[in-house]
Amino acid sequence: MQKKSWQTRTARLAAGTLAAALALGAFTGCGEKKGEGDKALTKVTVNEVTHSVFYAPQYAAINLGFFEEEGIDIDLSVGQGTDKVMTGVLSGSIDVGFGGPEAAIYIYNEGKENYSQIFAQLTKRDGSFLVGREKDDNFSWSKLKGTTLLPGRKGGVPYMTLGHVLRQNGLIPGTDLTLDDSIQFSAMAGAFTGGNGDYVALFEPTASMLEKEGRGYIVASIGEESGEIPYTAYFASKDFIEKNPDLVQRFTNAVYKGQQWVQSHSAKEVAEAIAPSFADTDVELLTTVVQHYKDIDAWSTDPVMERESFERLQDVMTEAGELKQKADYDNLVNNTFAEAAKANG
After folding, report:
1. Do 292 and 204 form a contact (C-beta atoms < 8 A)?
2. Taking the domains of the chain in order of start, what are their residue ranges?
3. Where is the signal peptide (predicted)?
């Protein structure tokens, strides 16, 4: 098999990035501070599922001042799991959640009155890479037969997307190979290097860090194989959106600016823009990882979540046995703000 373009680049990532990925911020709620020219900024607490270069358009929007232009001060924290992010949204301890849309689907199907609505999409395919113990320039998915793979949390979009890829390559999870989902997301790389599993699904920069250290090798892009799916999005409680429509609109405007900027700039320029969010990683190393994601067309060009894409996600969830009843797209996805951002962009 021809080696993919992202496999040909040498990733050199500092170990300090992992520490940054685990850093947690305080939940403080909406408030105000002064921006440039004493302009009052509204504080919005955002809890992201993890801290990854995969979310480059978000960090570009923060660091280039797009949120500040919209009168918003972002207080960013890390939840380490979409389930934990959703808990914060529903409890009111955070304003906006950022993670897999599957959590919003589960909550909606529970019949909660103040369910969480998705209002902006950021990524459009799986951002994880399959890492093996040996370098394999001629990898094929059939090589996973009889192996043990560390896939992440059962029920999460990464787990389900991987299962979809395995099935479309003729492999039945649990029959043709073992999926060990007992390991927490943040501990997967350590478990793999400690001897657990034959393969592991990892996000950047962790995947390239293992490759640089000679403790693992990227053999495939899961997102490139799976095709487009609404992978990561912003959501907030229905009550929050109804009470703060102008704030949600301005937030979405900033996200759209970040998406457009990343699309129109080189990997190096993007790396330079997001560097403040990854202080322990030099720009050259960030450039490598950004290029990986550009190569697989990971980022949405606008924040609209299309009906077809949403239904494809629900099909993947149903196939995985995690969804018994499909959620209503028109109730769960609120594209009002995304459409307005595009129209006025």
Report:
1. yes
2. 5-125+230-344, 128-226
3. 1-28
Residue 79, burial from CB neighbour count under 10 angstroms (0-12, 13-18, 19+):
buried
Per the CB < 8 A criterion, the answer to whether 299 and 261 are in contact is: no
218: its two tokens = 């990227």
> What are 5-41's pLDDT values in tens digits?
444 433 333 333 333 333 333 333 456 565 555 679 9
Radius of gyration of the chain (CA): 19
pTM: 0.84
Name the amino acid, one letter, at 114. N
Q: How far apart are CA 33 and CA 45, in angstroms?
A: 13
Any idea which residue has 């129209």 for tokens? 343
- E strand or H helix at 307: helix 307-319
**Which residue is it, tokens 């393969």?**
199
Q: Classify residue 46 as left (phi > 0), alpha (psi -120 to 50) or beta.
A: beta
Write the DSSP string, 112-162. -TT-EEEEEEEE-S--EEEEESS--TT--GGGGTT-EEE--STTSHHHHHH
| CATH of range 5-125+230-344; options 3.40.50.2300, 3.40.190.10, 3.10.310.20, 3.60.15.10 | 3.40.190.10
Instruction: List Cα–Cα distances, 255 to 10, 65, 194, in angstroms.
Output: 30, 11, 38
